[in-house]
């Protein structure tokens, strides 16, 4: 394995873009990343696409090939990977391994998504099957995605006494960060009162405590040390990139399961916890070395719970950390300076790569009003359907 | 008139009690819902499984109230906001289902609930039923 560097990152702003095809969003993002890397399309030796579940493309998700045939037929290697909402991390991991192996010098990872409106429902055409959790959760009980997150939040209230105001404040924090990010979709700061006045979707979670669904695209160009020196600017190295799946006995209320086998001593959200801990290990760092983290905040509950699950804080301590400003710029662990999913809305396959864009901009000191001063180590953590976890550490 | 489960082969009513179609590992005794084709416990070597009916009562681990109507695959008619819960049943299996027969503001984590059934809509042949959890008889709701 040889060292791998981030040559450039880029994104198409998140929003609702009914007039821009998915390929158009993707090309916009890759063009921006190539611009930062001072490369042309014909210089890319490989393209890894976080393939979509929602927009078909050629052959239901061969997006890397679709981009090649749309914009540059120069024979590059195309890889299309799945992983649901963690697909971007799987794509990054694959591109990282392709460079690290020595066989490729320039590889881009890309995710682009146009999301249907409303609750994310069962994919059309899926067969009725009495052994399929996803079929049963809709047919037997109508369990939406927010219902799963709400039950985690309700349990936290029971165990730690988290208040409605604290959950709302976590959402307000994300909007405050997002207001400073031109790529975020929701850039209007909110208040605790506004969040609590928004409709209750799934108790105890209000509408403004749950991420929306958006259209967006993000891309990262990775390369060898020689390529990083050619591109110029600060050297941003991939300290580690890890993907993992869940462990037997995980107590999480995992979408879309209707039956689970929780066992004592198994980490909650084990697919992500495993990825984070191995990412620390491979990077030779610990929690105390992390200057900022981008996490998958599908809800306000995630902001409070995930740092505890990873071991940054003790269980239940997140509420106090939020209240005392430790989770924002200048605090002990700035969470989602980008504004997170709560400010972006989720564009599933692109989301983990948007996280990496933010890590890179933070380490290069290009994050504007949301800049974490002097950031040298930045990491991401993401979760995808099917018990997919991913974590990436970048260092300057 | 006979009750039919909303998903065939998922649920039965025998001797007055509801039973969910689950699976048990012959070797490590792990109980699964819904049915599985193999045991996924990594320390279990045999992996062979047998049908197992999940029934009786359990403890409420957590719950929520769904305030918005789910996508149309859920055919509750008429529709109104309802509770969903995660219930820890015997043999270490945690099952999700609707919570019924209790006011939405009286549901508490830790309460003991029985597995039962209820109709979610009527067809010509009778009610279409799904599994629910209800307070144990005489618990006073």
Write the layout of secondary structure elements.
The complex is a heterodimer of chains A (396) and B (141).
Chain A: E1 5-15, H1 22-37, E2 46-50, H2 63-71, E3 77-81, H3 87-100, E4 106-113, H4 133-139, H5 145-160, H6 164-178, H7 192-197, E5 200-202, E6 205-206, E7 215-223, H8 225-231, E8 237-245, E9 259-260, H9 270-283, E10 292-295, H10 300-310, H11 318-323, H12 340-344, H13 348-363, E11 377-384, E12 388-395
Parallel strand pairs in A: 2-3, 2-4, 10-11
Antiparallel strand pairs in A: 1-7, 4-7, 5-6, 8-12, 11-12
Helix pairs in contact in A: 3-13, 6-10
Chain B: E1 4-5, E2 11-14, E3 17-25, E4 31-32, E5 49-54, E6 57-66, E7 82-88, E8 94-99, E9 112-123, E10 126-135
Parallel strand pairs in B: 1-10, 8-10
Antiparallel strand pairs in B: 2-3, 3-4, 3-5, 6-7, 6-9, 7-8, 9-10
3D structure, described in words:
The complex is a heterodimer of chains A (396) and B (141). By secondary structure, chain A is of the alpha/beta class. Chain A folds into 2 domains: 5-117 and 216-231, Thiolase/Chalcone synthase (Peroxisomal Thiolase, Chain A, domain 1, 3-Layer(aba) Sandwich); 133-211 and 240-395, Peroxisomal Thiolase, Chain A, domain 1. Chain A has helices spanning 22-37, 63-71, 87-100, 133-139, 145-160, 164-178, 192-197, 225-231, 270-283, 300-310, 318-323, 340-344, 348-363; strands at 5-15, 46-50, 77-81, 106-113, 200-202, 205-206, 215-223, 237-245, 259-260, 292-295, 377-384, 388-395. Chain A has a 5-stranded mixed beta sheet with strand order 1-7-4-2-3, with helices on both faces. Chain A has a 4-stranded mixed beta sheet with strand order 8-12-11-10, with helices on both faces. In chain A, strand 5 and strand 6 (205-206) form a beta hairpin. The model of chain A has no long low-confidence stretch (mean pLDDT 96). Chain B has 141 residues and is mainly β. Chain B has one domain (4-135). Chain B is 0% helix and 48% strand. Chain B has strands spanning 4-5, 11-14, 17-25, 31-32, 49-54, 57-66, 82-88, 94-99, 112-123, 126-135. In chain B, the strands form 2 sheets. A 5-stranded mixed barrel of chain B has the order 6-7-8-10-9. In chain B, strands 2, 3, 4 and 5 form a 4-stranded antiparallel beta sheet that branches. In chain B, strand 9 and strand 10 (126-135) form a beta hairpin. The model of chain B has no long low-confidence stretch (mean pLDDT 93). The chains are: A alpha/beta (396), B mainly beta (141). The interface between A and B is large, with 42 and 46 residues. Strand 9 of chain A pairs antiparallel with strand 8 of chain B, so a sheet runs across the interface. Chain A: This is Acetyl-CoA acetyltransferase. Chain A: Keywords: Transferase.
């Amino acid at each position: 394995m040889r060292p791998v560097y981030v040559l450039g990152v880029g994104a198409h702003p998140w929003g609702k873009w009914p007039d821009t095809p998915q390929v158009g969003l993707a090309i916009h993002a890759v063009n921006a990343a190539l611009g930062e890397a001072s490369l042309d399309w014909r210089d890319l030796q490989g393209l890894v696409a976080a393939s979509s579940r929602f927009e078909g493309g050629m052959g239901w998700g061969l997006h890397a090939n679709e981009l090649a045939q749309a914009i540059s037929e120069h024979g590059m290697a195309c890889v299309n990977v799945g992983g649901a909402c963690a697909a971007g991390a799987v794509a990054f991991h694959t591109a990282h391994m392709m460079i690290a192996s020595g066989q490729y010098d320039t590889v881009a990872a890309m995710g682009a998504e146009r999301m249907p409106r409303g609750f994310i429902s069962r994919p059309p055409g899926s067969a009725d099957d009495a052994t399929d959790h996803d079929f049963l959760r809709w047919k037997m009980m109508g369990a939406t995605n927010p219902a799963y997150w709400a039950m985690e939040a309700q349990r936290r209230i029971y165990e730690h006494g988290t208040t409605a105001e604290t959950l709302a404040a976590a959402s307000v924090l994300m909007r405050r960060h997002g207001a400073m990010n031109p790529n975020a979709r929701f850039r209007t700061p909110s208040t605790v009162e506004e969040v609590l006045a928004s409709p209750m979707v799934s108790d105890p979670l209000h509408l403004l405590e749950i991420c929306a669904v958006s259209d967006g695209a993000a891309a990262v160009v990775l390369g060898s040390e020689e390529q990083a020196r050619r591109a110029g600017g600060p050297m941003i190295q991939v300290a580690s990139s890890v993907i993992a799946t869940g462990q037997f006995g995980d107590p999480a209320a995992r979408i879309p399961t209707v039956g689970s086998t929780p066992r004592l001593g198994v980490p909650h959200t084990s697919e992500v916890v495993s990825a984070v801990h191995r990412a620390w290990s491979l990077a030779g760092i610990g929690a105390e070395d992390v200057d900022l983290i981008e996490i998958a905040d599908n809800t306000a509950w995630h902001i409070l719970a995930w740092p505890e699950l990873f071991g940054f804080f003790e269980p239940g301590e997140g509420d106090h950390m939020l209240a005392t400003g430790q989770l924002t710029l200048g605090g002990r662990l700035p969470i989602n300076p980008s504004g997170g999913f709560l400010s972006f809305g989720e564009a599933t396959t692109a989301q983990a790569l948007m996280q990496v864009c933010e890590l890179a901009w933070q380490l290069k000191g290009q994050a504007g009003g949301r800049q974490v001063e002097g950031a040298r180590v930045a990491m991401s953590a993401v979760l995808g359907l099917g018990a997919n976890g991913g974590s990436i550490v970048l260092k300057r | 008139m006979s009750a039919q489960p909303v998903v065939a082969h998922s649920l039965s009513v025998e001797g007055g009690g509801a039973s969910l179609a689950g699976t048990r590992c012959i070797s490590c005794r792990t109980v699964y819902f819904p049915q599985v084709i193999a045991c996924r416990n990594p320390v279990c070597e045999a992996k062979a499984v047998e049908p197992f009916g999940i029934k009786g009562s359990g403890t409420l681990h957590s719950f929520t109230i769904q305030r918005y109507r789910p996508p149309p695959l859920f055919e509750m008619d008429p529709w109104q906001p309802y509770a969903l819960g995660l219930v820890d049943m015997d043999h270490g299996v945690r099952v999700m289902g609707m919570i019924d027969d209790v006011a939405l503001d009286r549901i508490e984590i830790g309460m003991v609930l029985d597995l039962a059934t209820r109709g979610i809509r009527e067809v010509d042949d009778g009610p279409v039923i799904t599994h629910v959890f209800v307070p144990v008889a005489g618990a006073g709701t």
